[in-house]
Amino acid sequence: MNSPGPTMLVNYHPASTEPEIIDLQALTECGFPVARMVVVPSAVEEEFYRLNNLAVQLEAHFAGIDPSDPDDEDIEDLAPGAEVLVNGRYLLDEFIDRFYELISSLPDDVRVRRPGENGSSGRGGRGSLLSVKRAWSSDWLFEPLWARLSSGGPLLPTPRGLLLHAAALDPLPHALARDASALLGKPLSLFGEPATGISRIIELPASGRVRDRE
Hints:
214 residues, alpha+beta, three-stranded antiparallel β-sheet, 42% helix
């Protein structure tokens, strides 16, 4: 494929800045029972924006906003239209074909999420594909959009990767988490299900409470 596309976690080797992906790969390489997992790299989201000319359209949509002094009511009014813009654009056929091919190796109920987040569920190939687009368009919900603009950040979100795997995120045995923590040199909690393996890693701070982003 000339364009960036999805891949299985075990075949995903470009440099990653996502700590959870790095940890999942490390556990996989050391023989831990990590679930089958599809990665949609951040380059796919970047290309989706570029091919659909979304940057220009979204900047035009928010043209009346003063970036140095955004108004929360104006942002709240404009956010739904931005979400519709992203959801209404198309993915390349070659991406979709490869996506369906890979997703067929996962259970019917799939979780689609950003690394470090819980994400949402989709069912089957079509449902999972729609969940990918919803993950991208969720950056245009009022809360994340306002968080970017009110802090002086850019209008456009930074592209990030996505993980797709079995939907269940049940706590896995403490002994497994203990061994993974020893290997990676930091306290961890592991989630997934025994039948499919580790699907989520959460790093624990010194206090022992979960460091998480919802």
